[in-house]
């Protein structure tokens, strides 16, 4: 039996002859029945819905109801002359017109000329206009005139896939029925019913693939089913259906999806290459991935009716399933969907697909953060929200750090090299009470640049004119540096970084001028005589011209630390203590474990 003859047989056999045979349109059928039984029959009906949903079938069925020899009925006999003529498409009073092929106004006028004459065989002259939205504006107007004052023996049945294109003046004169698109499960169940009755073997995956491809259209589904029966030698199974539809190997797509979710880049690319060798177009593979993502998301959100078809039970997905999250999947779907546009623009679609897959693989399953933090806290033996930081680390008072309360910020670096690129899933920063560690995980762009600390004032030219100031008290080298910072910022930096202090006395006032012994620590300080002059200028500007400055050069290379070096050491010690405290924190340790992260930097906030 050939494909076409098989199709004709099944399609004819399963064309609905009664309202109850229509599947998935119960609400429309009920309303129509009601109208027919009550005798409230409008001049014009309008059926809307996608192609292949049953608009034409319903139109013919309605024509039978209106013209049946047994009288106007919701249950036409199917045996009288009128009913049989309609089934054969030969009824002299029933006109089926494809509006798409007769859009011209002359054709419409010719058709409507016949409206005036009474029917020859049955009760009504019935005009079935398919794709009525295709009519030209003048044709619509001609039709409208007839609709305004139709003879009682005339009924119109309009059908359209695009109801928005129909003039409101036409719409207002029709009783409208919207036919629903069939969902995949409903369609698959219907196909299973047909095959059960026909006693044809099938598998669920094959039917699911057909109903998916039919996209809600019963006619397409039945047509595909007929072809699948012929293709599979009297049996409907996934292998033959996928061959027929040019589908990808679903198992392999699921495996690719799993690799993508787990960030197994090499396996993922190898699978993609396998599809390419198999002749699968990149866009087809991408569509299948989108489809799997959608199904997984749906299943995760609301579950599935049929456990046998659950993706969570799928061998390739079992392992990664517990780690999947709705937010991650939404993000993944968005990335893949946007990537489809890129694919169409790309000179090498296969290359674009690889780039897209690599990009998508960086989206890693991240459980909802609030939930994660709470579970971490419980594991660390702390009630959520009750945590207090230990006072082990004392505040470090450094110039440039104005905060009186110091809490550490932790930056994590992922261990996996695959994660070093910027993350599309970025956990929001968790802010809690002060002195709590602030967790940024995973950090978008490690490594983190160390903070500018201590703060360096902007470089300025030394002022040439020194305005008079009251005598200062500079009882220490540090205070002298602070005093210099205002008027001689460059000198202050030099004192801090390039000079080591050997001794310092006096400086309590004009009668106790300071006496200092300073060693050149770096060549950057300049000639000793120049340094001496600079420091003396400083003392003069501070109204302490009697101060004494001795400059030494190190003979054996040893010298005390400069102020900058002392600060650096103190800062390092503080940083180490801070890092130790954070690293020892059980909560932080748990975060490191869960995110496969390591601490690269701790800084106070
Ligand atoms: Zn009949």
TrEMBL record:
Q: Per the UniProt entry, what species is this protein from, by scientific name?
A: Magnetococcus marinus (strain ATCC BAA-1437 / JCM 17883 / MC-1)
**UniProt domain AAA+ ATPase: residue ranges:** 41-201
Under InterPro entries, the record lists:
AAA+_ATPase, ClpA/B, DNA_pol3_clamp-load_cplx_C, DNA_pol_III_gamma-3, DNA_pol_III_sug/sutau_N, DNA_Rep/Repair_Clamp_Loader, HLD_clamp_pol_III_gamma_tau, P-loop_NTPase
How it assembles, according to the record, is:
DNA polymerase III contains a core (composed of alpha, epsilon and theta chains) that associates with a tau subunit. This core dimerizes to form the POLIII' complex. PolIII' associates with the gamma complex (composed of gamma, delta, delta', psi and chi chains) and with the beta chain to form the complete DNA polymerase III complex.
What is the protein name given in its UniProt record?
A: DNA polymerase III subunit gamma/tau
Q: Sorted alphabetically, which SUPFAM superfamilies does this protein's record hold?
A: P-loop containing nucleoside triphosphate hydrolases (SSF52540), post-AAA+ oligomerization domain-like (SSF48019)
Claim: Calcium is one of the keywords in the record: no
Bias-annotated ranges (Basic and acidic residues) = 553-571
Q: Does the keyword Zinc apply?
A: yes
* Gene Ontology cellular-component terms listed: DNA polymerase III complex
């Amino acid at each position: 039996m050939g494909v076409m003859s098989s199709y004709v047989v099944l399609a004819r056999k399963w064309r609905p002859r009664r309202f109850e045979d229509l599947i998935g349109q119960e609400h429309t059928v009920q309303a129509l029945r009601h109208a027919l039984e009550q005798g409230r029959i409008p001049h014009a009906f309008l059926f809307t819905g996608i192609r292949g949903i049953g608009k034409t079938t319903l139109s013919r069925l309605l024509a039978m109801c209106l013209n049946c020899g047994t009288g106007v009925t919701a249950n036409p006999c199917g045996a009288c002359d009128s009913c049989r003529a309609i089934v054969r498409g030969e009824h002299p009073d029933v006109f089926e017109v494809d509006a798409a092929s007769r859009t011209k106004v002359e054709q419409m006028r010719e058709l409507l000329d016949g409206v005036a004459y009474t029917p020859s065989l049955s009760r009504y002259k019935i005009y079935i206009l398919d794709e009525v939205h295709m009519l030209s504006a003048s044709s619509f107007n001609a039709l409208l005139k007839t609709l305004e004052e139709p003879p009682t023996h005339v009924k119109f049945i309009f059908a359209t896939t695009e109801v928005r294109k129909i003039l409101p003046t036409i719409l207002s004169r029709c009783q409208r029925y919207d036919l629903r698109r069939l969902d995949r499960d409903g369609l698959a169940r219907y196909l299973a019913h047909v095959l059960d009755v026909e006693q044809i073997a099938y598998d669920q995956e094959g039917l699911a693939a057909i109903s998916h491809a039919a996209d809600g259209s019963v006619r397409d589904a039945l047509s595909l089913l007929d072809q699948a029966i012929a293709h599979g030698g009297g049996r409907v199974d996934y292998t033959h259906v996928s061959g027929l539809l040019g589908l990808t190997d679903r198992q392999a797509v699921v495996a690719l999806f799993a690799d993508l979710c787990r960030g197994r880049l090499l396996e993922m690319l190898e699978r993609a290459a396998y599809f390419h060798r198999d002749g699968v177009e990149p866009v087809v593979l991408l569509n299948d991935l989108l489809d799997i993502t959608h199904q997984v998301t749906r299943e995760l959100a609301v579950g599935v009716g049929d456990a046998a078809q659950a993706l969570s039970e799928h061998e390739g997905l079992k392992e990664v399933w517990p780690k999947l999250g709705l937010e991650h999947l939404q993000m993944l779907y968005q990335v893949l969907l946007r990537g489809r546009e890129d694919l169409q623009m790309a000179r090498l679609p296969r290359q674009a697909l690889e780039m897209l897959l690599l990009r998508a693989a960086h989206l890693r399953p991240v459980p909802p953060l609030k939930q994660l933090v709470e579970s971490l806290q419980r594991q660390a033996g702390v009630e959520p929200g009750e945590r207090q930081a230990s006072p082990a680390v004392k505040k470090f008072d450094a110039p440039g750090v104005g905060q009186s309360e110091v809490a550490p910020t932790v930056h994590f670096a992922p261990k996996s090299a695959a994660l070093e690129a910027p993350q599309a899933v970025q956990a929001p920063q968790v802010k809690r009470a002060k002195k709590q560690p602030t967790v940024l995980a995973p950090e978008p762009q490690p490594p983190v640049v160390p903070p500018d600390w201590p703060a360096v004032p902007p470089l300025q030219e030394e002022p040439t004119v020194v305005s008079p100031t009251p005598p200062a008290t500079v009882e220490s080298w540090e205070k002298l540096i602070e005093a210099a910072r205002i008027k001689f910022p460059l000198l202050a930096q030099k004192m801090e970084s390039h000079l080591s202090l050997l001794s310092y006395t006096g400086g309590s006032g004009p009668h106790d001028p300071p006496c200092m012994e300073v060693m050149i620590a770096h060549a950057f300080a300049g000639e000793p005589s120049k340094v001496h002059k600079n420091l003396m200028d400083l003392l003069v500007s501070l109204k302490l011209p009697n101060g004494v400055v001795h400059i030494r050069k190190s003979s054996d290379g040893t010298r005390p630390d400069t102020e900058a070096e002392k600060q650096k050491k103190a800062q390092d010690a503080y940083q180490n203590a801070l890092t130790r405290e954070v690293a020892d924190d059980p909560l932080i340790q748990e975060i490191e474990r869960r995110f496969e992260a390591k601490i690269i930097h701790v800084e106070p906030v």
